[in-house]
Amino acid sequence: MKHVEVFVAGAAIALGALAAGQFRPSLASDAHAIRTREDVVLVPPPAQTKALALGHDAAMVDYLWGQLLVQHGIHVNEKRRMPLERYIDPILYLEPDFPPMFAYVDTLFVFRPPRGTEEDARTARTYLEKGLQVRPYDHKVWMHYGQFLAFLAPSFLTTEAERDEWTRDGAHAIAHAVELGGDSDRALSASTLLARYGDQAAAITSLERVLAIESDENIKLQLQAKLDRLRASRAASEKDLRAKAASAFIDGERRKEAPFVGNERNLTFGPWPNAYRCVGLDARAEPRCATTWREALERRGD
Questions:
Q1: The pTM is what?
Q2: Which of 60, 77, 96, 124 is 20 to 30 A (C-alpha) from 169?
């Protein structure tokens, strides 16, 4: 009898092991699917959240913010995507100018697992711009917004033109942050970006404004040196543009009035005023009636 009991127990164990081996793959697949589904977030929509707060909006905001950070950390560890808006929207509904949100919202979006996307970068920008609306004179919000656009967000965009556009917008925001009281040394990086992307006038204006309010002599020296370089570069660019415009005008007149004359002879013999159109004192003052190229260019403003 004892041997029979041992045999039965051994058979039961064998059958159990066989059954586990048969059903384990499907159970593992189901478990994996359950882990990777969208979360069930126990946070109601913004208006209902405010009603549940019973007037304790600040306490509810602190609770939701803490939950957001904890859940974000868990999702990063488990490499799962998190529905951030379900936490962020109620927080901003209860407290639209909540400062920590605008210091970390971009990081929460573009670094959420499995990886940030272009859409995440756009969403982060939208939330940061809400911060600019409710805190328009907060240089920290402007600086964070500018640095996100100029340095972090472009790596998530797909087109070169849009990357350049975001970088320019970021440089403008950084320059504005400095004007509002942000670190003056940031004006140097902002002016460099503005100049690099063809907005030298804005770069010069930004440095001039910062110089007017800066009191640190060492920083003022750096800003002035940068400003002098930008002014010299802008003057050289404008001179080059005027020279190209003048050359194009002279060559255009040659092609129109005397195409049989070479460039060198055109400079000697031209311009070529039309005698019939240049009769009278009023007509003589027009660029087309000048008798020398210098006079024609001066009348054109070149």
A1: 0.64
A2: 96
